[in-house]
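Here is a tokenized protein:
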Amino acid sequence: MREKDPPGFADGVFEGHFYRMESLEMLADSLLVAGMTTTALIIVVLLKSRRSLSTVLLSVLLAACFSFLLYYYAFLHHSKTLGAIAVFFGYGMGFLLGPLILFYTRSLVFQSRRLIKPLAIHLLPWFCYWISVSIPLSINIYSESIFAGWGQTIADNSEILNIIENTYLLVYSVLAFKFVKRLRRASLENYSSLSRRDVSWCVLLIRGLSVVVVVDIALSIYEWVFPPTEIIWNIGLVVAILLVVFIGMIGYRGIFQSQLFIPPHLLPIGNMEKTPEPSGNDAPGHYHLNAQREDIEALKSRLLHAMESEKAYLNEGLTLGDLSTMVDLTDKKLSELLNRHFQTTFYDFVNSYRLEAVKSKMADSNFEHLTLLGMAFESGFQSKTSFNRIFKQKVGMSPSAYKKKLAESSMLEMERVAS
């Protein structure tokens, strides 16, 4: 991501890059200060809350964003020193953020020791860029006579470098998003509650950063094709303001994002997990349920008995392994039975029973003493958030609206009978 037209290059005067639009500068200054303050506070809270690789990576990611904002703050306040510091730590941040965002998502599942070496390898491009570009550029801003020629070359090609850097970041964002999708799929296939395995935070992180990057690329292409003939306003401030909004969105969620309790063997990545190649009955594409139709129906009956008679769904922490033990099947066979013969995931299958149990309680006067959340907890739901989300997704309205509709229907029925 850009520090657009780094100061101290074209004319060797840092002050020559400031654009005189007082009202916009005041607004930008306020937003930058708010963004840097928020970012610094989040980093402090993260590092004090718990020390893990995921919090360290997220803190470094936010620190890079802080340097980016600091650059534009220095730009507005004519400070060579702050500008040099910001460039030293934050220039070429796309080469840093790409690996960070990918390995942040992986660190939520895998042990740190399996990630350090691969992360170091993925950070080599950023390290080379930092040595060859960021450090000389930082020195040139502070002392215009040093690396003047190299600084001018970088300034002349800043748009191209920025497009390359952001494209690099987007590639990693795509890889991270694919990993998160696999993460969510593994959760849906193995767990009935996602309250401790919620990946919506990661999706927000990746999508939000990608929006900022795409806007930055678009602005770089625009300035590359239509170079400004007169200095009016540093268009890179638009990206900085977007970044402030992005940090505000992710801040709270980032602090409270918990480790995702998903066994790493469900998501092997290269050599990180020393898992032997599957063969025989475990090979990809192999059907574990090679049974006659009568046998499949018998398996279905055992599964439905466990859910309807034994009410397995009332166990709020029910997993695929737990249910497979109850029906005397391996977890792989049970997963295949659900996917192929019920056309659903384990998560949706279990929560459909919980949902029907809640709806039944809403219509039963014996449960009038319970709140909606109480009914949800008694039906196996583990959190208010997941209950509301699943209910609205499956029923098309909120639990309270559904209960109100039931009451209205009951009243109309009573009036019809009375008449």
About this structure: The radius of gyration is 28 Å. The longest helix spans residues 158-190.
